[in-house]
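can u do me a favor
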């Protein structure tokens, strides 16, 4: 027997759509300009510059990998 709070039992349930922007797709607009700024602003400290640049670039690739696997998970359902 289904409980009254079971969403599959309710008819006429209206789900609100999010009208805002998908922020997970807008993140590259933040880290893309940061990469050249790191290179330009830390010219005099090459060790810190290279480590920070590598960390931000690794974060960018991890974020891209997350988005791609999330899309594949949605398509496989």
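np, heres the sequence
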């Amino acid at each position: 027997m289904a409980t009254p709070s079971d969403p599959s039992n309710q008819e006429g349930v209206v789900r609100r759509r999010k009208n805002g922007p998908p922020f997970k797709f807008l993140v590259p607009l933040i880290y893309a300009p940061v990469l050249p700024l790191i290179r330009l602003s830390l010219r005099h400290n090459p060790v810190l510059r290279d480590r920070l640049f590598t960390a931000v670039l690794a974060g960018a690739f991890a974020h891209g990998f997350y988005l791609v696997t999330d899309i594949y998970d949605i398509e496989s359902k």
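The radius of gyration is 21 Å. hope that helps!!
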